[in-house]
Amino acid sequence: MDRLLQRPAADSLHRRPLSGSPWLSDTALQPVSPAVDSLDAAEPASAAAIAQAGVRFSFDRFQVHPEQRALLEEGRPLRLGSRAFDLLVALCRRPGSIVSTQELLAAAWPNQIVDESSVRVHIATLRKALGDGQAGKRYITNVPLRGYCLVAPVEIAGDANPEAATPPVPREIVRPNVDAGLCAPPHAHGLIGRNQESDELMQRLREYRCVTLVGAGGIGKTSVALPVARRFADVEGAAVVIVELGALSHPDLVPMTIASSLGLIISDGQPPLLAIAAFLRGKGRQLIVLDNCEHVIDCVATVAEHILAQVPEVHLLATSRESLRIHGESVQRLESLSLPPPAMQSRAADALQYSAVQLFVKRASANTSTFSMGDAEAPLVCGICRRLDGIPLAIELAAGAIEAVGLRGLVERLGDGWEIAS
User: Fold this and answer.
1) Quick one: CA dihedral 113, 114, 116, 122, positive or negative?
2) With contact defined as beta carbons under 8 Å apart, do 319 and 201 qualify?
3) What is the full DSSP assignment across 169-194?
């Protein structure tokens, strides 16, 4: 399993003091690029042939040619899977606007029933191809439980349908995380095997002002945290704002990212932490979700301590591979989904009592109408889930490959050391 999803090495027990910057450092996490996306990748056409295309979209150093189904980087064709390309075109047609997950599903999988996790997988592939999050570049922003937004200014040339694309929106004024200041995410559906963990997290949020949900990569921290944040908002009457930190390329960007998510514009020369604290005061009870903190953990810890000390009404919920290690923090560890024991005689009805198997079956059934798990298939599915250590993201990616390689083909590839997340 270590080959599929690498866990970080254990950190020291005490956080290092910050130096230099008033905040922090960040190594961008490389998004998962599943093999299932590369299966449908075609060889890129020549630049000369692409130049004859009609409508094209341009942003930063990239050009997108929908008719030729080509993506160029400074005139050089890039290899990209067809699903990821369809998602890119859909985002280019509405730059600066949130494109819902359902709209993206319709664009890339027309007239098919596909699970929403497929969008996340192929968006990760697209981000990797674009170098999103590297060298300070941001192109695609995730709006949790709503959709995605292309935040780079887009130029449209050729025979474009004006109804199919909106004018480019300047990057500095695009704040897809914000609806009238502080926003609450909609309810999430279909979370499997996490009822007990969700209830515990809700209780911790009521008892502590700072809670960190800790777990390995792909374990489902965000999937648990966001529905609980919504539940906390409903029960406690708190406003909620989501701050997505996963794509940041440097820790110094953390304070400005929080400010942007709050809808706060900080003037030049104004200390960001002081401005954030002043903005939050007097706005009543609030919950700020700091999602994917591990690569900027020192900065997040500094910001969190300042907000907690200066604004008593604010609660913080962080998701990370390690804790913040600050005063008053409550840490909850998220473990893998439940797995059938190796010695169990795996009948389908018995196997479905375990959440890892439930997730695999649900995702595989959503990705292909020909999949079903009977008693004959149950031992194979149980073996796959055990091989993947019950990690939800790995299970979702494996289930997504069923249509291409079949159940037995997936078992063979896992047995040969095939890396689903490569």
Assistant:
1) negative
2) no
3) --GGG--TT-SSSS--PPPP----S-
DSSP 2: T
Contact assessment for residue 139 and residue 127, using Cβ atoms and an 8 Å cutoff:
yes
- DSSP structure string for 290-312: EES-GGGHHHHHHHHHHHHHH-T
Residues 6+ positions from 159 with CB-CB distance below 8 Å: 54, 55
Q: How many CB atoms lie within 10 A of CB 292?
A: 21
* Tokens coding 108: 């890339």
Q: Which of 400, 345, 337 is nearest to 371 (CA)?
A: 400
H/E element, 220: none
Residue 389, φ and ψ in degrees, nearest 5:
60, 20
> 120-132: string of b/e by CB count within 10 Å (b at 16+)?
bbbbbbbbbbbbb
Q: How far apart are CA 319 and CA 118, in angstroms?
A: 22
Q: What percent of the chain has pLDDT over 90?
A: 41
CB atoms inside a 10 Å sphere around CB 174:
22
Considering the entire predicted model, what is its pTM?
0.59
Q: Is 48 exposed, middle or buried (0-12, 13-18, 19+ CB in 10 A)?
A: exposed
Tens of pLDDT, residues 381-390: 999 999 999 9
Amino acid at 258: I
pLDDT in tens, 153-168: 888 876 544 333 333 3
* Neighbour tally for 180: CB within 10 Å: 7
Q: What are the C-alpha distances in Å from 378 to residues 340, 357, 367, 415?
A: 11, 9, 18, 17
Most distant pair of Cα atoms in the chain: their distance: 67
Element (DSSP H or E) covering residue 390: none
DSSP 52: T
Distance CA 135, CA 141 (A): 16
SS3 201: helix
DSSP states along 256-290: HHHHHHHTPPPPTT--HHHHHHHHHTTS-SEEEEE
Q: Which residues contact 326 (CB under 8 A, 6 or more apart)?
A: 210, 301, 304, 305, 308
> Helix or strand or coil: residue 402?
helix
Rg (CA), the chain: 22
Single out the residue of 162, 155, 151, 126 nearest to residue 32, CA to CA. Answer: 126
Q: DSSP character for 54? A: S
Give residue 273's identity as a one-letter amino acid code: L
Q: How far apart are CA 118 and CA 397, in angstroms?
A: 8
